[in-house]
Amino acid sequence: MFEIDRLIRLALDEDIGTSDLTTSSVIDPGIKGNAQIIAKEDLILAGIDIFCSVFTFLNSEVKFNKFFKDGDFINSNSAVAEISCDVVDLLRGERVALNFLQRLSGIASLTRKYIDRVKGYNVKVLDTRKTTPGWRSLEKYAVKVGGGINHRSGLFDGILIKDNHIKACGGIRRAVEKARANIPHTFKIEVEAKDIDEVREALESGVETIMLDNMDTEEMEKAVRVINKRAVVEASGGINLDNIVDVAKTGVDLISVGALTHSARACDISMNIVGIKG
Amino acid sequence: MFEIDRLIRLALDEDIGTSDLTTSSVIDPGIKGNAQIIAKEDLILAGIDIFCSVFTFLNSEVKFNKFFKDGDFINSNSAVAEISCDVVDLLRGERVALNFLQRLSGIASLTRKYIDRVKGYNVKVLDTRKTTPGWRSLEKYAVKVGGGINHRSGLFDGILIKDNHIKACGGIRRAVEKARANIPHTFKIEVEAKDIDEVREALESGVETIMLDNMDTEEMEKAVRVINKRAVVEASGGINLDNIVDVAKTGVDLISVGALTHSARACDISMNIVGIKG
Amino acid sequence: MFEIDRLIRLALDEDIGTSDLTTSSVIDPGIKGNAQIIAKEDLILAGIDIFCSVFTFLNSEVKFNKFFKDGDFINSNSAVAEISCDVVDLLRGERVALNFLQRLSGIASLTRKYIDRVKGYNVKVLDTRKTTPGWRSLEKYAVKVGGGINHRSGLFDGILIKDNHIKACGGIRRAVEKARANIPHTFKIEVEAKDIDEVREALESGVETIMLDNMDTEEMEKAVRVINKRAVVEASGGINLDNIVDVAKTGVDLISVGALTHSARACDISMNIVGIKG
Amino acid sequence: MFEIDRLIRLALDEDIGTSDLTTSSVIDPGIKGNAQIIAKEDLILAGIDIFCSVFTFLNSEVKFNKFFKDGDFINSNSAVAEISCDVVDLLRGERVALNFLQRLSGIASLTRKYIDRVKGYNVKVLDTRKTTPGWRSLEKYAVKVGGGINHRSGLFDGILIKDNHIKACGGIRRAVEKARANIPHTFKIEVEAKDIDEVREALESGVETIMLDNMDTEEMEKAVRVINKRAVVEASGGINLDNIVDVAKTGVDLISVGALTHSARACDISMNIVGIKG
Amino acid sequence: MFEIDRLIRLALDEDIGTSDLTTSSVIDPGIKGNAQIIAKEDLILAGIDIFCSVFTFLNSEVKFNKFFKDGDFINSNSAVAEISCDVVDLLRGERVALNFLQRLSGIASLTRKYIDRVKGYNVKVLDTRKTTPGWRSLEKYAVKVGGGINHRSGLFDGILIKDNHIKACGGIRRAVEKARANIPHTFKIEVEAKDIDEVREALESGVETIMLDNMDTEEMEKAVRVINKRAVVEASGGINLDNIVDVAKTGVDLISVGALTHSARACDISMNIVGIKG
Amino acid sequence: MFEIDRLIRLALDEDIGTSDLTTSSVIDPGIKGNAQIIAKEDLILAGIDIFCSVFTFLNSEVKFNKFFKDGDFINSNSAVAEISCDVVDLLRGERVALNFLQRLSGIASLTRKYIDRVKGYNVKVLDTRKTTPGWRSLEKYAVKVGGGINHRSGLFDGILIKDNHIKACGGIRRAVEKARANIPHTFKIEVEAKDIDEVREALESGVETIMLDNMDTEEMEKAVRVINKRAVVEASGGINLDNIVDVAKTGVDLISVGALTHSARACDISMNIVGIKG
After folding, report:
1. pLDDT for A248-274, tens place per residue?
2. SS3 B143
3. Is CATH 3.20.20.70 what the domain over F118-262 is classified as, yes or no?
4. A216 given a catalytic annotation
5. How far is A150 from chain C (nearest CA, A)?
6. How do the domains of chain A map onto residue ranges?
7. What would the CATH number be for the domain defined by B2-114+265-277?
8. Cβ separation of D133 and C183 shorter than 8 Å?
9. Mean pLDDT of C46-51
10. What is the ipTM of this complex?
11. How far apart are CA B47 and CA B7, in angstroms?
């Protein structure tokens, strides 16, 4: 619940540390200023509230004028927001606040690209647990802002029996039986299948969801026919902007894409001081 | 000093939370196993020690056999290391440990690509403060592993007078004078210059380093001639794998690249259980 | 993941604070001793490992000889375990360690009483979220040790639409539709129903579990007939050792009992020093 | 000083974790509501301020209308307070806030029962260190609210030489001498005595308080006569609502009761949403 | 209980921060070395264990050879201890470890000077609550090592009614009555008296200890006569090495000296590397 | 960034702990009062804001009337500030707040004495890393308030090659070369020299600053002549109020004095309640 505040503090600590040497030696305290946040490329905005929180941590009297909200598409060179504050705090918070905003908008913008690709197909795009350590909830939020769907948050809120579980347990059937006997009644079961035989075994075990792991699209199509609506079907592994449409065409229900969070590049956003009041 | 341990704990907390539902319901405690870590693409390894620490946090008796060390080039499909441990802990730690290793190796591998491009030119490639909040020291470490050079760690350990400082202070000369009067004697001064006029003003102010901000290569060349070794010259802004050679040819001493940390994609690395002992 | 260690530290801090005045003034350092842990009433043991951890926090060289393990039935006046350690640390840790052990064994023992009552009926006894703040995972562990089943851990790992949700959302149907559209595919849906009409509405909405909230047994029976295996049925509200058999007879699948955690009394367990070595 | 805030955060963290799945999927943000807190049995209120703090942590704009204050007797079915807030936050905070209020009111109500029993006798009812780890100060507060008296807070603010100290030190006299030589001049000394001989030894050692440990009432009476006002007399061990009057009749000054904190059952209190404003 | 570890971490963090720049750039990792700790003036040693802990935090394989223990008198130019370790860690830990040792030895040495002055008088020298914030328990430990006696640890473990309490409460008698009615039976009461009238009032109120606050020695003598062993007598306020003998001669039982902790100067102790092994 | 808040909390925790026993038993809640802060000796004020923060932590409605600000000279017996607040909180915060103010003012006042001595000489007085663990930034702040200059904050923001580095590295030249190759371009290099030979070696290595370590003034003069403005010269080691003028006369640029922080005595400042409103 409180991990975002902790991350902001951590980020300010690691950037400012003992003090902002340049600013404290060059700028007189008490000078007020306005700054504009400018999108330097087309993007989907994500993280505007955490961006503001960074400055609020430094100075409780900072004022914001937000021209857009999370999820909005913003054209290159548009102003995203305006901030008024002591110049000293504008300069101390600039980099940390932008680092949050650029990374989260990067994830939202990339997610939107995937969503746009499969528009018209009856399929949802999901994230994975391949997130930056410490950023799980923020990155999953950015995926949602971009139009994606969240898979489980962690190991604690979803049952997903993967290849390593199957190997260690001795087969899909055995693993599903043990899971069903031991998990709370509030959970469904998902199993990873690497070929049609495993798909069949999972199906016979009565699982609610089957993940097709690293299959080619031909094999996926076959799996979808075999499953025949008796379980939700998730495609996973090596899916990118080039091949996602082919995957969508196989008829799977869900497509999970690790790259949404582990390989999004940061959006280009900058902050310019536009006015100074002595 | 202790922030890496804190980040590992945070990462395990956000992934495992109340428990690893799947593993605890499917795998009997006490089963031992071996797992191999496999590079699924060519990469520069970074983060193998933090990878191991994740498992050590979960189980102090885990054993590692590392085939490579940070900074090594690893061919696709090679085994990076082998781990022996309770299977339950292999499965609980897998994702978090890989998330660290994939991200850091991604940064080191990208850095190496930049370094390789400018081989033969007398220029160094530097990182920036555009890092993932909470990851500053880890990401700067990965840049170094990849062969890059670290710029200042934060606002506390380097003087860099940027455009917003200049605007708020009323000119380069004034800013440099104030800095010199107020900073400890252990620091040099760097100033950002956006054109030749500012380069000249910075030079006359006697700064030790001049950053050429977002100049085109023609302008950079001119700046280098004007400065004529009287200050260290750093190029910054919009530099990528396509244009870095042109920048290097201008004769600058340092090239800083935000993309090293803010836009590296994760390397593909996986963990496979290869043996189980009842 | 790390909250139990934090709770032990908190407990030692609040009891020992600046120092154990009595022990440090009365007992010379360096004296070794043995102590026995004695059950002063019949009980189901729970928490023996956390009991030991308390002493290990104080002195890493403490040695334990455990005669029983969690889940074992122990007769009044039996020795549970023996500890060897500096006497100073035996005395400093005694109360905190016993406070953990007595409370957790109290919960396990009470849970076992409920389980024993409904032996022979095809029904499971569950805990609730009515736990002591800070103790959620420990108390749920004690319920499991006693033979009970855990309901969801918190608001994050289960969907349970309760009366207040229904009121605020405007009806069961509407709430279930919204939930289904928004939750990850890994979760089932449970709805609270206060009468047969609500049971029918829940059933038509296709929920996986229906909680009969504060119904009398006659109404429960009717609900079970109406549901007719189309959903899992949970009874909840005001269930105690006197009426649980009647509830079990109605044919419900699950019975949840808040008293397991919010009203168990501590077991009587004591520690006696039995040997001193100067 | 700050441990109550920490406990509230811990409690919200363990209940809400990554998010309140049900509420966030079912209730639209921005809807306001009123809720009533209803006592479902006769009780002594304790913890109304911490109850409110839980909601304030979630939403700084929540408003309370409290009809009673801590220490008040409340009749079954009376409204304790009313809350106005975003419905989302009413639902997120409900269980944690009630868990605090129910437990603390349970302790206060049980304490009052003990106090009422011994009304008319010149004796005080005290708590012990048999508290829930992490809850020491809260539970001692609830005892005070119920009319009880607090014994020492922990090992750091009172000298109590117990049986295990006496065994390890080699006798009461020796232990009292060592204590007197080593403790700050601000403390009195209390000694546990298990029979009349020990009472005499304690008395001759000049202690300020003698605790009669697990004596029957006949022995207690004798001890009171022997002590004859030369020390404060505390009865302890196995005292309950059935036998406390007999203990009071022996003429002891203080009666300490572990059950006040370790075995109070939670009071039944509930929260009902009574109004919704779109 | 755990605050000393926290202070060591805090101290290492504030000194080393992101890294020891000098050492990491100048010394190759893996070089081992020995260093000697040398007392550069006569002193009473205090803090040798915390000194060692600082290095153990940095490197668990450091080895110590201690020639003295806390409380020992050490001659100028004697070796206190020898350390063997990676040179990198010797250099990283040197300053922080010495800062602890120099400050604590400074307090112990100053305390010893006060003790030596009043040798032969039947009086004890006590510390006060005028300690460095964050260092209360360490500084009180150093006072004890130096031969002093600890007054209460804080506001929580002793009753001391001071001038401001008396003013706010309306007189000594009233304050003592209220205290007696409200405090646990484990505490004695001490009252501050600024003149003989207040001494008399305190005495009549039956307090166990009377503090003579900022009296001259003549007035103290009179107070001692008036009290005539009916209460313990503590002298306090403005006592230093020059006047402590005169105070001792007045016949008071206790003398408390703020300067022990708030104005001790650090002892001169240094660390010299005496051997390097490649 | 947030370490001062943490230190205040730590300080309040260690002083107040479970409660202020005296105040809570003697003073009725709700009584308001005014208190004056009085300088009991001539001093330079430092820490008035942290003094106020202590009370604000306890009671957000406290009001201050400050008659002086940090850096001001205050005459003995002058009022520094006035506080209005619940009397209970005045009494709970008094000691901790004064402990901060007295220590910091002590450092500022001592620093001012050193500064005054060398007035008229072209030399600056610097602090060192010989600070109280946990207090680095506060104590360096107090030095600045007193008119001193801050040396580096820690090992992370300045390069200072000391005797132990030189020994372990094998000579000044070698150490400087390695430093220059490895440190960020933003730093200058300082080297410690113990005699004229080392001064020459440092000079030839091209370092920016040379520290003359424990030289007598004759040797210092010689070193200043040898260096002849080619490097900044810092004198260090054993400098006190008696010899600082002689050191200044040698022509060094900087004089660093450990005693500023490790051996300042606390200023005498007290708090008197001057008005009570029932």
Report:
1. 999 999 999 999 999 999 999 999 999
2. helix
3. yes
4. no
5. 6
6. 2-114+265-277, 118-262
7. 3.90.1170.20
8. no
9. 97
10. 0.96
11. 13
